[in-house]
Amino acid sequence: MASNAASRRDEDEVCPVCKSSRYLNPDMRFLINPECYHKMCESCVDRIFSSGPANCPVAGCRKTLRKNRFRKQTFEDIGVEREVDIRRRVMHILNRREEEFDSKRAYDDFLEQREDIIANLVSRIDVAKTEAQLQKYAAENMQSIRANQAIEAEEASSFQARMTLEQEEARLRRQAVRQEYETERREIQAGREDFLTRLASGSSTDAAAIAREGHKVLLKKSSARRSEEERIRQKQAALRLDNKRISNLSTVEQAGAADTGLVKGLRKIKTPEPEKPYDPFMGYVPEKRDYYSLQSYYPSQYLDPIRNDARMLAGGYDLREYYSRTLLEAFAGLSCFVGEEISQRDAANTSTSTATEGASMAVEGGENTA
Ligand SMILES: [Zn+2]
Ligand SMILES: [Zn+2]
């Protein structure tokens, strides 16, 4: 284990191309190319690729590399470096946003699909097929990809603006507190000195009057300080208003951008309204009674002996059911005005009666001729 780690560190110290080691050249820097992730030193890159694209000098690797693609390694593990590169590239293309999907479920499915694609590319499964899919998607959805990239950039910049404003606000607050403290200290000092000089120069009878006056001066000064505080508070409020305006602006822009994304957004068309629960009675509530409320007990000479009679109850007889049926029957028909319904029915009949009359006459005529 320890020897393994040691040998790997030694290997890292030596350029696999020119075999020069960091021991001899402490300033040596290693670069990688995302084409094959073979590591080599900076001077080798300069030497081999300065005159244009060339094959990777590492034995067994025939990838064509360009100098401008070489960069410093971010992660120590080359595997991690490669995965991060792949992830960045795939996320750049498959950058659909949650609000573009009908449901959370659909968005989750999309995220899972994206992870599958990344995993395939990382572990070199179906690379050609997956790459072809990605290219096809990128070509077909160029507009939405651009729109989403713009939204992302906008979000990042508005976040930056908000941070700056918050910092400015905090700075103003700190400044105000410091100023307040400073002014107060200076005023107290000045007031005290003034008071002492007046006392020293004046006669002893004036002492009370001078003290009163000094107190008044201090009061005046503190009111002036209050107005200063008020001014700072207003400044901060204005800043906050500005802040709010910026955040509003960004939401409006986001909505607009999302709309343009929707034009090409194949998956999300419109979020359906949540369905109301099915009502088989069309608003009629089965147990609702408008004219009475069912009690659990009504005194009755006839029913009272039955109430606790085992012979009756054993058969399943329930007095509550009896009450419910009796009351329903007693109140059934209230608010149903039969007279009105008949006159309405007659009115409806007269309007159609001409047709029926004609039909009956025709029938009669037919009978006569027969
Ligand atoms: Zn080298
Ligand atoms: Zn290579």
From TrEMBL:
Pfam families named among the record's database cross-references: MAT1, zf-C3HC4_5
InterPro entries recorded: MAT1/Tfb3 (IPR004575), MAT1_centre (IPR015877), Znf_RING (IPR001841), Znf_RING/FYVE/PHD (IPR013083), Znf_RING_CS (IPR017907)
SUPFAM superfamilies, per database record: RING/U-box
Keywords on record: Coiled coil, Metal-binding, Nucleus, Zinc, Zinc-finger
Biased segments, Polar residues type: 346-357
Compartments reported by the entry: Nucleus
Region feature Disordered, mapped onto this chain: 344-370
Keyword Transmembrane: no
GO-annotated cellular components: transcription factor TFIIK complex
A molecular function GO annotation: zinc ion binding
Single GO biological process annotation from the record: regulation of transcription by RNA polymerase II
Predominant location category: nucleus
RING-type domain: residues covered: 15-58
CDD domains given in the database record: RING-HC_TFB3-like (cd16573)
UniProt feature coiled coil, ranges: 167-194
UniProt-listed NCBIfam families: cdk7 (TIGR00570)
Name by which UniProt lists this protein: RNA polymerase II transcription factor B subunit 3
Organism: Penicillium desertorum
